Amino acid sequence: MRVLLRVVGLALLALVVVPAAFLLEAHREIRQLPPSLPEQGALLAAAAAEPGPQRVSWLNTASQAGRGSPPVGHPVFLLEWADGRVFAIDTGMDRAGAEEFGALLERLMDVEPIEAFGSVAEQLGDEVDRIRGVGFTHLHSDHTGGLASICAGRGESVRVYQTPRQAELGNYTTRPGRTQIEEAGCGGFERLSGGPLYAVPGFRGLFAVEAGGHTPGSTLFATRSGGTTWVFSGDVTNFRQTLLDNEPKPRLYSLLVTPEAPAHLERLRVWLAELDARDGVQVVVSHDVEAIAASGLPRHAVVRAGR
After folding, report:
1. pLDDT at residue 66, as a whole number
2. Fewer Cβ neighbours under 10 Å: the N or C end of the chain?
3. CA-to-CA distance for 192 and 125, rounded, in angstroms?
4. Could you tell me the pTM of the whole model?
5. How far apart are CA 222 and CA 5, in angstroms?
6. What torsion do the CA atoms of 82, 87, 244, 260 make, to the nearest 10 degrees?
């Protein structure tokens, strides 16, 4: 009996110690990766100097609201150049992935059932063939799950562009997303060079910035179109107002759900809020679909309408 109790005790200890070790290592790594931010003037000048995309728009692959709180969306941002080529920032989720993701949140939190609007390919129809490049603000599966629908049957025509940190670093929260992009069937990966402002080759006027804070490979994207410099901030915050108010995410979320670096995220919030306050600049927070709709960023006309 003593042997059995010892075995059971060791097994229970392992169930606690092993996850804790992964969590501690993830916290240690993310705190050692401060944002690599360019001068704001340099970013704005670079974006203004290049003939960027002719049009920037967005579509939503899914939305889920808390009880009495704003909906959290899972959008895709589409940048279109004059020659018809399109670059997608994040890819949202397909229907199955959204339903699975939403069901998990329902079990863990007080939220309403998710509304799934369809993958990027499902919503764009034949227009999806114009997507030639993809970049991710970070590699969580609610941002990467729709890539397979873009790349299906398109072979070498679609490439994924990554900063060095995103290409090299990650943790247990980004591993599923990395697997999704590796198995999506795209034309391969292109590692960006330069920095701290990384020009995306082949897509003039589009720039990436290594941000960290949320995940080791978190990335900001910036471009100028229609007289506005659009800065896509990913999950630095979940809502635009918390970015402007310099309000951190719930402590338990940053501690236990997604290992984040609070000091780095505060620096990013301040930097982005200052950037947003400049004339002609709009910071777009990925999940805040109500703020995106109010920003003036047009919704992309889709084959199957979403919300």
Report:
1. 87
2. N
3. 30
4. 0.92
5. 58
6. -160
C-alpha triplet 191, 221, 97: angle, nearest 5°: 85
Q: Domains (ranges, CATH) in the chain?
A: 33-294 (3.60.15.10)
Q: What contacts 161, CB < 8 A, 6 or more positions away?
A: 133, 134, 135, 189, 190, 192, 200, 201, 208
160 in Cβ contact with 135 (< 8 Å)? yes
CA proximity to 162, closest of 224, 76, 221 = 221
Q: How far apart are the first and last CA of the chain?
A: 60
60-70 tens-digit pLDDT: 999 999 887 88
Please provide the average confidence, as pLDDT, over all residues in the chain. Answer: 91
Taking residue 178's Cβ as centre, other Cβ atoms within 10 Å add up to: 17
Helix locations, 195-257, DSSP H: 240-244, 251-252
Of the candidates 176, 171, 111, 191, the residue with the CA atom closest to the CA atom of residue 142: 176
The whole-angstrom separation of Cα 57 and Cα 97 is 23
DSSP 127: G
Residue-level length of the chain: 307
Instruction: Tokens for 119, please give them.
Output: 């993958």
